[in-house]
Amino acid sequence: MPDADPNAGTPFAPAIDAHVHVFPERLAEAVQRALTTAAGWEFPHRPIREATEATLADAGVERYVALPYVHEPGGARSLNAWLAEQAGDSERLLPFATVHPDDEDVGGIVRDAFEAGARGLKFHCPVQECAPADPRIEPALEAAAEYDRPITYHGGTAPMYTEDPHVGAAAFAEVVDSYPDVRVNCAHMGTYQVSAFLAMAREHDNVYLDTTFAMSTEAGRTMEFDPSTIGDEVLIELSESIMFGSDLPNIPYPYRAERAELLGRDLPTETYRDVFYRTAEAFLGVA
Ligand SMILES: [Zn+2]
């Protein structure tokens, strides 16, 4: 059952959700079980595409980015192919591609995925143990530049990676400096180094941040982050760099909590349109 959504029809809709996960059912359930074990979270959302899309449709989300990632080498081609198939059955799904840094033919896997319709690329730096500009993924970054496809990274230190050498603003700055033509998004507002990531977004047109988890009303409980530390003036100033995302279905709260904090701010209509729609269009190159 999708959750009934009292916020539909607010400045939120129509929206693009730039950060959603769609995996084959067994894998998706394993991901949620692992998160329950690690963090004690219970999920009100079944991790299957139909349920996810019902929740999004209820909220007024027109399109969403589905982010895959592989934990081990060898699985990227089949996961990318599966996601491309899902996109063929969906009017809303914009598929990204995955590759593992230790895959053979990193560049070939990514090129084939782009040829098959993938709209961008996703790296989960701590899980895949690779920095944003790791030499092993250079062929993937070059393919992204050549095909003009954006990249979303879990590139910040939240929620439990403060000691991880693959994440953080310094590591992220390397990809920004080396690939100035590639649009790169650091998920979760770059938490916990928000000021450094905001500064990068201010300085570079190709740097984006998504609001996923960090701007939810539950961020204090789930990741010990207070979204109100990012002021209205920052959202207004950087509305062309900040886009809405949710992490659905892997959020231990109702979907509406991802936007309730933002909607509670009384921001200008233009800021809301950017954050909830236009910035994602620009990032994706689908405007
Ligand atoms: Zn995510």
From TrEMBL:
CDD domains: metallo-dependent_hydrolases (cd01292)
Coiled-coil stretches noted in the UniProt entry, renumbered to this chain: none
Keyword rRNA-binding on entry: no
Alphabetized UniProt keyword annotations: Lyase
Pfam families: Amidohydro_2
InterPro entries associated with the record: ACMSD, Amidohydro-rel, Metal_Hydrolase
A Gene Ontology cellular-component term: cytoplasm
Entry annotated with the keyword Translocase: no
Signal peptide: none
Any one of the GO BP annotations: secondary metabolic process
Gene Ontology MF annotations: carboxy-lyase activity; hydrolase activity
Ranges where the Amidohydrolase-related domain occurs: 16-285
Protein's name in the database: Amidohydrolase domain protein
Species this chain originates from: Natronomonas moolapensis (strain DSM 18674 / CECT 7526 / JCM 14361 / 8.8.11)
